[in-house]
Amino acid sequence: MAAELSDGATRAGSEMAPAVQVEGLTKSFPGTLALDHVDLEIRRGEVHALVGHNGSGKSTLIKTLAGLHEQDEGTISVLGGEPAAISSPAQARELGLRFVHQDLGMIDMLSAVVNLALGRGFDTGFAGHIRSSREIAAAKEHLAELGYEFDMRAPVGELSAAQKAGLAIARAIYDWEEACLLVVDEPTAALPSGETDGLFRAIDRARAKGLGILYVSHRLEEVFRISDRVTVLRDGRRVGTYPTSELDKDKLIGLMLGGEQLEAHARRGEEGERRDGLLVARGLRGAVIEDLDLDVAGGEVLGVAGLTGSGREEILRLIFGAQPRGGKVQVGGETLTPDDPRAAMRAGISMVPADRHGDGCIEPLSVRFNATLTDLGRNTNRFGALRRRQELAEVNRWIERLDIRPRRAENEFALLSGGNQQKVVMAKWLRLSPKVLLLDEPTQGVDVHSKAVLHNLAREVASNGAAVLVASSDDEELVDICDRVIILRDGRLVGELTRPQVSLEAISRMEIDFSAEELDPRPIS
Amino acid sequence: MSERDLKDPAAEEPRNETPETTPLHHDPAGVPTTLPTGVSHAGADQGGVTRRLLASFGPRRLSAVYLLIFFLILFRIIAPGTFLTGTTIQLVLGEGVVTCLIALAFLIPLAAGSYDLSVAASFAFSLAASIWITLHSGIPPVPGALIAVVVCGLIGAVNGFVIIKLRVNSLIATLAASQILLAAVLLISNNEQMVGSYPPKWAELGTGKAILGIPNDFIFLIAIAVLLWFVLEHTPIGRYLLATGGNPEAARLSGVPVDRMIWGAMVVAGVLAGIAGIVYSMRTGVFNASTGPGYLFPAITAVFLGASQISQRPNVWGTLIAYFALAFGVQGIRLTAESASVWINPAFQGVALIIAVAIASRQIGRRSYGI
Question: With a CB-CB cutoff of 8 Å, which residues 309-368 of chain B face chain A?
Fold first, then answer.
């Protein structure tokens, strides 16, 4: 490939064997081919960016390098060594591969010194006592090398996000003489946009030590800022590897999306009666979201798109009051008490949360218990006792309607498949006849058949006059069911698409493009 | 997926419809109709009665009953003269009332996922306070007992405050509370034995046999158990408690007032522990400083073993069955091995607790209900 011949951007060390050479890597999971004969060469002393849209195979590739997945085919060779598979994280470490994962893996209660020592062991003296002053001095030195300076004894929880990221890199390359590759996976996802300078300086210094660096990020401006070469993945295949200097933003986005324009399959029911301003949010603020205004009409399905970390994950939780919010939320003109899910429910809001196991269900209890928890009062007699038969009848009707299998209300919830669990959660909220239905990742980990059922339900609820909000990382889902899609980036609203402009390409473009405001979304006819 | 299946799911939910006895089983075209084997259709009560009965009475759900029967037969054979006599049974049942009340006090917060380790200390406090009232004030026993119970309820409310508002883990909060209660008890009793000045009718109230020769306090225990069982299994409040214990965050997001549930459960635990103290005062009317702590362990064991019974979560009847199964076991060993009588009880309880929680955690399987 011509791109690989021009070599202007790479530094010294390219004459040596590459840090890591991946050849023909293939990995399939039931139903999907996650990696399809992917080649990748990361040289020593280069920052190699790996980019691709959601589901392009980036994380599978990294997990295979880390020894967490075993490939079906293909080889990995480290420093020109024997091409082989990496069968365990311990082996990956031994080979000199180091990883900084998105969640950083820090223990907030412990000090920087102790966190640095985790997984490596302490410097111990007589009778195994920890040589604290030596440890602290060594930790200081390692972080100073990366350009950081802070109190090594303070609990990590008190450090800023940027300092934590620096600490994670310092830990990964503590023994850098033995390391050859540093993989940094979305390191800036948790960082405020202004605090990335320190991180880039640290990466620069790691590069100067002769390490190969594989940099994974959704933020394209960072790719242009720091990387020497870029490998683009799409649908599990390598599109190509290019010197960064030969690319520009438009070219890169084009490579990522492949110029394919998927047909928007509208599954829209008959037009419901629209009721403007049913759900109104003004100045909504959360952990990521800053000052967001939102108007959703009754009868429409509004999608919320955005990459991980954009605020897409929290917007529905903020509206429902599942986490603390600033700003005002109104349903039908009435302002809701913040941080109170019960107030939201009284106002007619239902929320199907994204984390089904953590937030959506009570696993040890039965389907019946779970389905009726949102309103037990309707199945009680005048003495306040539950009418078991009436309750069972109601649950059985929902089981029929949503085609929940197996058709047993008394089954333990945990025994159901993901799709059927999600249908129970849906039933639990639909039975309240919500005015506003919030669906957070409604079809994550759900089979195709259940997905169709859930999508149809969302459309139907809207055509009955409710406002439906769908926040999803699955852009295709948004194209399928939404009348309108808003796009978030870094906690802010950066774009809005209304049918017939809603398309995969338009959404993806606005999610990843740091200057999408200037672009006109191209309508699909 | 046919359209009629999804017709208007949100809007037309009927409220007071009579239960369907024959639900429809139409499988829409294009949908696989095979169900996992051994799984019946919704509302298939008609077909599966035998199987359901078998399941309900099988050893997996009622292991403690089988354990009880095993102990009864074993010790009937080993100690035919002494074991299955009226005296032994009376003794075990009588001793059991107080422990069972304390166990129920522990059960209610546990259903909401919180520990109350102060129940035995509250029990001791209630006993000491009600005796003190008979000795040092002109208040008659009944209002005196009522005051003790109310104070125990307030202790529960303080526990709730510490757990909810001060965000102290329930295990630690109530462990600390039990120490503070111990201090209060020592203060009241001056670290001396106290003999209550009760009229003879007071003891009669507890140990008299008004119905079928069964001690009154045992009937009282059953009445409280029925009440708690009804609330826990047949009212929205019980559902809320179990939801809170099963997954507090999911419960909160489903509109369950989680904090109020935990708080209320702590108050009920205090009240039940207080009642246990009153029942004890009817039995002996004597307090000494060592009364109390010894009751915590058998109570906890009964609740956890009980949680592996019947519904596979903390429940009232499982707790009582589990308690008596273990109590008859302990009594049998006491009678057959005289020299073992002192140390056998804690040893037996310790082993039983580990086995109970091991069974319960296997069946419940996830981190919930404090297991």
Answer: 312-313, 364-366, 368
Nearest Cα to Cα of residue B136 among B86, B80, B189 = B189
Tally the residues of chain B.
371
- Other Cβ atoms within 10 Å of A84 Cβ, number: 12
Q: How far apart are CA B217 and CA B98, in angstroms?
A: 9
Query: How far is the C-alpha of B10 from the C-alpha of A374, rounded, in Å?
Result: 14
Beta-carbon count within 10 A of B136 CB: 11
Nearest CA to CA, how far is B296 from chain A (Å)? 27
Q: Which residue of B has its CA nearest to A431?
A: B10
Among B31, B254, B256, B363, pick the best mutation site for testing chain A contact (most A Cβ within 10 A): B254
Which chain A residues touch B43 with a CB distance below 8 Å? 392-393, 396, 409
Show Cβ contacts of residue A475 under 8 Å, excluding neighbours closer than 6 positions. A54, A305, A504, A507, A508, A511
Residue B210, phi-psi category: left (phi > 0), alpha (psi -120 to 50), beta (remainder): alpha
Indicate the residue of A373, A374, A433 with minimum beta-carbon distance to B11: A433
Residue A342 and residue B257: Cβ atoms within 8 Å? yes
Single out the residue of A354, A374, A392 nearest to residue B10, CA to CA: A374
Residue listed under structure tokens 């917060």: B109
* C-alpha to C-alpha distances, B220 to A91, A305, B224, B278, nearest whole angstrom: 66, 61, 6, 12
Chain B positions in Cβ-Cβ contact with residue A341 (cut-off 8 Å): 252-255
- How many beta-carbon pairs below 8 A join chains A and B? 155
* Residue found under tokens 């002393």: A45
* Smallest CA–CA distance from B369 into chain A, residue: A364
Give B360's Cβ-side CA count (13 Å radius).
30
B326 contacts B302 by C-beta, under 8 angstroms: yes
- A28 pLDDT tier (thresholds 50, 70, 90): confident
Judge whether A382 is closer than 8 Å to chain B, CB to CB: no
How far, in Å, CA of B364 to CA of A78, rounded?
46
Which 3 state secondary structure label does DSSP give A47?
strand
Q: Which residue of B has its CA nearest to A360?
A: B250
Q: At what angle do helices B316-336 and B86-111 cross, to 10 degrees?
A: 140
Which structure tokens are listed for B324?
A: 């008596």
Amino acid sitting at position A121: G
Alpha carbon B244 to its chain's center: 17
In this predicted model, what pLDDT tens digit does every residue of B223-245 receive, in sequence order? 999 999 999 999 999 999 999 99
Q: Which residues of A447-474 are buried (b: 16+ CB within 10 A; e: fewer)?
A: eeebbbbbbbbbbbbbbbbbbbbbbbbb
**Nearest-angstrom CA–CA distance, A452 and B130:** 65
Give tens-digit pLDDT for B294-344: 899 999 999 998 888 887 789 999 999 999 998 988 888 877 776 666 777
Is the predicted pLDDT of residue B33 greater than 60, yes or no? Answer: no
At residue A521, what is the residue type? P
Show the tokens assigned to A336.
Answer: 């809701």
Q: Is B48 on the interface with A (CB under 8 A)?
A: no
CA separation for the pair B162, B164 (Å, rounded): 6
Task: Give me the residues of B, 208-237, that contact A with CB < 8 A.
Answer: 230, 234-236
* Short-list B349, B249, B242, B335, CA closest to B295: B349
HSE (side-chain half, CA atoms, 13 Å) at B312: 19
CA–CA dist A330, A2 (Å, integer): 57
Per-residue pLDDT of B153-195, as tens digits, reads 999 999 999 999 999 999 999 999 999 999 999 999 888 889 8
Residue A331 in contact with residue A349, Cβ under 8 Å?
yes
Interface of A with B in 428-447 (CB under 8 A): 428, 430-431, 433-434
Q: Is B33 on the interface with A (CB under 8 A)?
A: no
